[in-house]
Structures are given as C-alpha cells and as structure tokens.
Amino acid sequence: MADDVTGVTRNPAIAELRARIRDHWDDFTPASRAVCRSLSEISPERLLYLSAAELGQASKTSNATVVRTLQSLGYAGLAELKDRVASPFQHPSRREERLRSRIESTGGDPKHVWDRVITEAIERIEFLNQHMAMDAYQEAVRLMLDAREIATYGFGANYVAAEHLTLKLRRFGRRSRCIQTAGFRLADDLLAIGADDVVIVIAPGRLVIDAEIVIDRARAVGAGIILLSEQLIAERLAADVTVAIHVPNTVTGITAEVLTTIVTTDALAQAVAAADTERTMESAHTLESLRQQLGF
After folding, report:
1. What start-end ranges are recorded for coiled-coil regions in this protein (predicted)?
2. Would the pTM count as exceeding 0.85?
C-alpha cells in the first residue's frame, strides 16, 4: 500500500481512518482503493466540507462506492467520519479557521451554497436516525409523561430549541416552563425544580458552567434529567443524568447547531402527545377557544 495512504497526521480521527484503510487494504476492490486514496490525501479541514458525491468524483468512482467503502471501514457513513474528524475543530482557537474554510468551501455561488446546506442537513438527520438509541428515547418519553412539570434549558442558539419544546408541551396539555435566565438570576429558577419534575438540558456542542449547575441542582433534589448533547459530553455525563441522548452537532457550521435538536425535541413532544390522545385533544380545544376569544 502506498505511503501517502498511511502517512501520519495530527488529527486522531484521520490517523484512525488510515489505520483502518491499512487493515482492510488487501480485501478492497480497485474502486474502493481509489476511494481510500482520496480519503487519505484530503486534509481534515477539506474533508469536512465534501459530500459523498464529490468524493466519488475525486476518486473517479461513485457516491455509492464511497458509502460502501466507508461502511466496510466500520463507519455508518460519511457523516460519522466527519463527526469524528471535526472534534479538534471545536476548540475556540480553531473557530476562525473553521469559518474561513466554511466560506471558501461554498465558492460564493448561491446554487452551490444551497446544495451544501441541503446536503449537510440530510447527512446530519440521517446520522441522528442511525445512531439514535431507541431505549434512551423511550425512557426519556416515559420520564416526561410521569413528570409534575418539565423544565427545559438551552443556552445560545439552543435556547430556541428549549423554548420550542416548552411551547409544544404546553399545547399538548403538559405543565412545562423554559428556564430563560443566566448567572445570578438563574438561582431563582433553580429553586423551583422539585423531585417530581424532569429537567431537559440541551447542549449539543459544549457544556457551559450554567448548564452544569442546572444538572447539579436537578440531581440534588432528585429530579429526572434528560441530556441532549453530542457524544463526548453525553458519555462524560452519563452517570450524572437519568437519560443521555446523542444529538450530532454540525461539523462545519453550514447548518444550524439546533437542526438535529429541533428534530429530537419534536419527536419527544409528539410521543408525549400520542401517549394520551384525550388530554392532547382537550388541550387543543381549550387553546382554540382562547384564541377565538382573543379574536384570532
């Protein structure tokens, strides 16, 4: 096998990829070897912004050959490989470099930008679906159904997902509130968490001190805790929460961080609604009556 395939790199995910290629090289067809050569020659920064179709063009093979080769190497698909490669780029010192790569990758052409966004959105949702632990999802739904109140918390862009979930749960007849404060005022909201409550913490990309304090407070009073986060955080806090659900973050920044979080919270809310149809319909009727009284 050629040296350019087995060369070293500072990115651990690329080093692992090349090791897997070396281990499987003798079993690969010429087409799969061509894909492996292309994968090994691409820099980590550029790999994050390539689609399976573009890798197929670069290796003179096809989209399907790229996917089959990656699966033979032990990856679910290109999205999983990108997720692993992106980990070192989450550090604050690499964000400017990541932004420049993101802008340059689109080439400034609106059609190219549109294709990039759609492709990454589909990849992330497929990756979410492939890696969703159904037992964790079902346990999260059970906790929400049994809760006296469901409190949601998200920081930064994920506040949108937390508020979105709270609104849907209220419309389905569930007592829910979104923790909107930070710093000094956050303590007042934490006082209201009780042992019969469930707290949903949304932190896909990173965990700030406020989010950790929310988790600590929920643990202290015996409340259930559902964590939606990327895999490393979910694994690190698995012992501190009741349920951890892996929600893949964007590896490029081309699509919104909250994309897969919104999909996951929609699935949680819909499962809660479906568990008690009568309660959901009664709440919907009441909501419609109130809107009519308000002139809507």
Report:
1. none
2. no
